[in-house]
């Protein structure tokens, strides 16, 4: 019986194609493992706040006291006048 190449004693075209796909499969597995290890090593440990692809969130760079004040204002616990006065006090502005 005649194969695509050779006299049938060697590997035909299907064998070569299969071998190429096998090599590509194992390369993809190794690359996937490398990326998984890089992801696990580079992620922040213990800090649940994460930066989005657009940079840090607006709350991230603020002191805790200012963040708490903004949260209280957003919940309606304090009015605008009290919020502005306390924010100015925290920021060191007189006014």
Key structural traits:
95 residues; mainly alpha; 57% helix; rod-shaped
Explain what you see.
Among the domains are: 13-42; 61-95. The protein is rod-shaped and about 90 Å long. The chain is mainly α and 95 residues long. It has three helices and no strands.
Present the secondary structure layout.
Layout: H1 13-42, H2 64-75, H3 80-91
Helix and strand content put the structural class at mainly alpha
Number of strands: 0
What does the largest sheet look like?
Answer: none
The level of helicity is: 55-70%
What's the helix count? 3
Give the SSE string: HHH
Quick overview:
With 95 residues, the chain is an all-alpha fold. The protein has three helices and no strands.
């Amino acid at each position: 019986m005649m194969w695509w190449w050779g006299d049938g004693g060697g590997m035909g075209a299907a064998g070569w194609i299969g071998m190429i796909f096998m090599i590509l499969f194992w390369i993809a597995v190794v690359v996937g493992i490398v990326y998984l290890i890089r992801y696990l090593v580079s992620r922040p440990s213990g800090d649940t706040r994460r930066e989005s692809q657009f940079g840090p969130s607006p709350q991230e760079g603020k002191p805790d006291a200012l963040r708490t004040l903004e949260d209280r204002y957003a919940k309606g616990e304090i009015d605008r006048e009290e919020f502005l006065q306390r924010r100015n006090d925290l920021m060191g502005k007189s006014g």
